[in-house]
Automatic annotation (TrEMBL):
Annotated SUPFAM superfamilies: RmlC-like cupins (SSF51182)
Protein name: Cupin domain-containing protein
Domain Cupin type-2: residue ranges: 35-101
Superkingdom assignment: Bacteria
Cited Pfam families: Cupin_2
Origin organism lineage: Bacteria, Pseudomonadati, Bacteroidota, Chitinophagia, Chitinophagales
InterPro entries referenced in this protein's UniProt entry, alphabetically: Cupin_2, QDO-like, RmlC-like_jellyroll, RmlC_Cupin_sf
Length: 186
């Protein structure tokens, strides 16, 4: 029996809802397109990806995007594309209104699965108050999502989290995450 995944997922700690408009399966891996509603004060920490770009397009409200060392406040119709290997984050500076925007991830890679795992763990109460999962889950998420934290060379992060992800898989931890995504879908 094939699991039908919801088109919309919510992260209770970050304060956003993501709707998958086009998945990797639907675009044959070319891209993933999501629409995000980010609540006041919501957002993520600085990070970067080595194998895909993210193009942000604001539909409603104001989205703040830190791209390298510069912060941009994007309004409806504004866009910015963050290429691979550039440190970035996005956030809603407003205390009053949500922001609605779209993000195109190109190529799709494993972006959908990574989001589904992270949001699923948070929704199930399997993270700390900041949304950080257990180290075994985190290692799998970072490896699958090809995401890195600034300040530590990617080779070192890849090595450390690669070893931890390998141990997690030997322990069977990855199978706990299948309920959040279809392993064959990315």
């Amino acid at each position: 029996m094939q699991t039908i995944l919801p088109k919309t997922i919510t992260h209770p700690l970050i304060g956003d809802t993501v709707t998958f408009l086009k998945t990797a399966v639907e675009t044959n891996g070319a891209y993933t397109l999501v629409e995000v509603v980010l609540l006041p004060g919501g957002g993520n920490d600085a990070h970067y990806h080595v194998n895909y770009s993210e193009a942000f397009e604001v539909l409603e409200g104001t989205l703040s995007v830190q791209y390298g060392k510069t912060e941009y406040d994007l309004n409806p119709g504004d866009t910015v594309t963050v290429p691979p290997k550039v440190v970035h984050r996005f956030f809603n500076r407003s205390n009053e209104r949500p922001v609605r925007f779209r993000v195109t991830i190109q190529p799709a890679r494993h972006f959908e699965a990574t989001l589904r795992i992270a949001y699923g763990l948070a929704a199930d109460g399997k993270t700390n108050k900041k949304g950080m999962p257990h180290i075994w889950h985190l290692a799998i998420i970072l490896q699958k999502g090809e995401s890195y934290l600034p300040g530590l060379p990617p080779a070192i992060q890849k090595g450390i989290f690669g070893i931890l992800a390998r141990i997690a898989r030997i322990k069977g931890v990855h199978r706990e995450l299948y309920k959040y995504y279809k392993p064959d879908a990315g």
